[in-house]
């Protein structure tokens, strides 16, 4: 599957559809070249690996008591470091990120995830390496 976004639920955006078409075309081009016997050299790529889902701060009744801090809003895939603003209480208190490593939040404040108790997802940036790749014909 390919997920391209973000975009609001029930909305069809031309720019997102164009990105999806390009990604699918690249995937199909790769399959065709691989099937034709093209050799792909070794490579390394940076990816984001999901670490955990982060819920909104809640009171004892399970009610949300803080919102995403304005400096975190719309900063998907950007580094979040120890001490950076993470949430803002309704009283104006900043709740900073407290972690031992830099993380890269994504799906920040997505409406579709409120019911899943997810304010954002913490990811870590890692490198994946692949050996050369070529179809071996027997």
From TrEMBL:
Pfam families: AstE_AspA_hybrid (PF04952). SUPFAM superfamilies: Zn-dependent exopeptidases (SSF53187). InterPro entries: AspA/AstE_fam, Aste_AspA_hybrid_dom. Coiled coil: none annotated. One of its GO terms (molecular function) is hydrolase activity, acting on carbon-nitrogen (but not peptide) bonds, in linear amides. One of its GO terms (cellular component) is cytosol. Residues 44-125 form the AstE/AspA barrel-sandwich hybrid domain. This is ACY2 Aspartoacylase. It comes from Cardinalis cardinalis.
